[in-house]
Every structure is written in C-alpha cells, then in structure tokens.
C-alpha cells in the first residue's frame, strides 16, 4: 500500500545535520517499491544545487506490520522506521528513530501523493512531531521544487 510515488512535504528532526542543512532543504520525490520478500526499496530524488541527486535504500520488514529497519552503509546508523498513520491514496506519516554510536535522534516525515496537502494534514504532522519531543524550530514544511 505504501508503494508508488510520494512527495516529501514535511520533515522534522532533532539531528545536527538537519539543523545545519535545514535552510537548504526542498521537497523531494520518493518512489517506494516492494521486493519479492516483502521489503521496501526506497528511492529518493532531491535537488542539490543545479542537479538532482538520487539515494537508494532498502528497508527491511520486521515482524511488526508497518515497521521496518534500515542500516546506513555510509554512516553506520540504525533506523527503526514505522508508518504511524496513513491514508495511502493521500498521505503517510512516518516516524524514524535513528541510533548510532554518537547518540540517537528522531525524524518524522510527511509523505503526500500530491505536491500539496490540506492544512489539517500539515497541522497533524506538526502536532505529531511535537508529541515526539521536537520543537517548532526542528519542524519544517518543505518548499516546493
């Protein structure tokens, strides 16, 4: 149900890289496809300067439905990813707990099937991010590209 094309509309995080890069961030496109064994292949394309950069990740399913794990080959960080709520025709709210040897951080993503989402959905994203302990400074509605 999560497969197909999504736009990243909102991003919230208390990680250092987010604080440093926040002012540069823009909406990106993510395409999710299921592998034969029930894992998810996630391809994100985002603007970087004058060009687009693509990143591929494989989310491994866990025994709990809607929950996946991912280990970043680049940073060695472990990601515990869960789909918090979704109406798969419209939006998905995804929370990720990231842990690495330097500490842990929280990230919340708001995916949408279109480039625009209702104010109610945006408000729900903001509210949910606050419930995860994130401050308003750490919550971002991404500018359209």
From TrEMBL:
Residue ranges constituting the Lipocalin/cytosolic fatty-acid binding domain according to the UniProt record: 3-145
GO biological process per UniProt: mast cell degranulation; prostaglandin biosynthetic process
Positions of transmembrane segments: none
GO MF terms held by the record: prostaglandin-D synthase activity; small molecule binding
One Pfam family named in its UniProt record: Lipocalin
EC number: 5.3.99.2
Main enzyme class: isomerase
InterPro entries recorded: Calycin (IPR012674), Lipocalin (IPR002345), Lipocln_cytosolic_FA-bd_dom (IPR000566)
Catalytic activity: prostaglandin H2 = prostaglandin D2
GO cellular component: extracellular space; Golgi apparatus; nuclear membrane; perinuclear region of cytoplasm; rough endoplasmic reticulum
KW Lipid metabolism (keyword) present: yes
Subcellular location: Cytoplasm, Perinuclear region; Golgi apparatus; Nucleus membrane; Rough endoplasmic reticulum
Disulfide bond is among the record's keywords: yes
Signal peptide boundaries: none
Main subcellular location of this protein, as a coarse class: cytoplasm
Keywords tagged on the record: Cytoplasm, Disulfide bond, Endoplasmic reticulum, Fatty acid biosynthesis, Fatty acid metabolism, Glycoprotein, Golgi apparatus, Isomerase, Lipid biosynthesis, Lipid metabolism, Mast cell degranulation, Membrane, Nucleus, Prostaglandin biosynthesis, Prostaglandin metabolism, Secreted, Signal, Transport
Subunit structure, interactors included: Monomer.
PANTHER family (UniProt xref): LIPOCALIN, PROSTAGLANDIN-H2 D-ISOMERASE
Family: Belongs to the calycin superfamily. Lipocalin family.
Name of the protein this chain belongs to: Prostaglandin-H2 D-isomerase
Lineage per the UniProt record: Eukaryota, Metazoa, Chordata, Craniata, Vertebrata
Gene: Lipo
